């Protein structure tokens, strides 16, 4: 119960990593607000979790409407009188239009960068005054290994995540005197609906070939790192960019090929 008496907000929280974070923070004792565009679906989940004994509530947020970020934060602060934890989980791109530098339309590129960055910048900007007024807080940005390891596609997504990593350090630096910490969690290939629906089995196999822990991560494993950053166990930890990817990209670039050669012997 590391988060007892804490109030948390999690964006994009009706499935995948966001939902896993909601459950884990609630398990740790927090009052958790599910920020979602589909309020009806979020309320169904919150009701189910309430039956299980968790204190989960719902607040409206539409990532495509910038004004809704401040409205969301102000609504939670008004209702609870405080905000202690903010998990900026929203982010994505359209794999059909977010391609490489040669084939990506500038407007599509900037659209991806804008919405992903806005989801962190505007939400953090709105939450920081409330956190400072209550003696501090923790902001956790869900980034991606794609923000530190360049890919052959998704130029907008990778650029936005790299910017979020740097923004994380800026927030940590500029808000430390208010006892506000900011860290980023970088999932690798994680077993979410989005991954299963959009990536072929061949691509998954190729990706995992270069992952020392040779499996996809589970959303709950990402949520475990988020819970650590949200808690006082991480009270002296800020500005960190933590890779939760099973070691993807850590060893020699020919790691996957070397393992295959060794297995053939």
Automatic annotation (TrEMBL):
Keyword Oxidoreductase belongs to the record: yes
A GO MF term: oxidoreductase activity
GO biological process: bile acid metabolic process
Key words of the record: Lipid metabolism, Oxidoreductase, Steroid metabolism
Matches recorded under InterPro entries: NAD(P)-bd_dom_sf (IPR036291), Sc_DH/Rdtase_CS (IPR020904), SDR (IPR050259), SDR_fam (IPR002347)
Gene3D superfamilies referenced in this protein's UniProt entry, alphabetically: NAD(P)-binding Rossmann-like Domain
CDD domains named among the record's database cross-references: SDR_c
Family: Belongs to the short-chain dehydrogenases/reductases (SDR) family.
The name this protein goes by in its record: SDR family NAD(P)-dependent oxidoreductase
Organism the protein comes from: Holtiella tumoricola
């Amino acid at each position: 119960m590391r988060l007892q008496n804490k109030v948390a907000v999690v964006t994009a929280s009706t499935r995948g990593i966001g939902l896993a974070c909601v459950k884990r923070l609630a398990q740790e004792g927090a009052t958790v607000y599910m920020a979602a565009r589909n309020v009806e679906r979020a309320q169904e989940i919150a009701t189910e979790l309430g039956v299980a004994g968790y204190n989960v509530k719902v607040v409206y947020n539409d990532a495509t409407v910038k004004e809704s970020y401040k409205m969301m934060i102000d609504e939670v602060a008004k209702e609870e009188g405080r905000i202690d934890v903010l998990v900026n989980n929203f982010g994505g791109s359209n794999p059909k239009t977010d391609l490489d530098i040669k084939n990506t339309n500038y407007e599509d590129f900037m659209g991806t960068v804008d919405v992903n960055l806005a989801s962190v910048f505007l939400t953090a900007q709105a939450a920081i005054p409330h956190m400072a007024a209550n003696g501090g807080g923790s902001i956790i940005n869900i980034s991606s290994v794609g923000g530190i390891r360049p890919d052959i596609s998704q130029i907008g997504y990778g650029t936005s995540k790299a910017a979020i990593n740097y923004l994380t350090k800026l927030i940590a630096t500029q808000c430390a005197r208010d006892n506000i910490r900011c860290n980023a969690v970088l999932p690798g290939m994680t077993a979410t609906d989005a991954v299963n629906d959009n990536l072929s089995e061949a691509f998954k196999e190729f990706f995992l070939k270069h992952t020392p822990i040779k499996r996809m991560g589970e959303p709950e494993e990402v949520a475990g790192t988020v819970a650590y950053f949200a808690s006082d166990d991480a009270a002296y930890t800020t500005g960190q960019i933590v890779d939760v990817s099973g070691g993807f990209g850590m060893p020699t670039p020919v790691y996957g090929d070397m393992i295959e050669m060794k297995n053939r012997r």
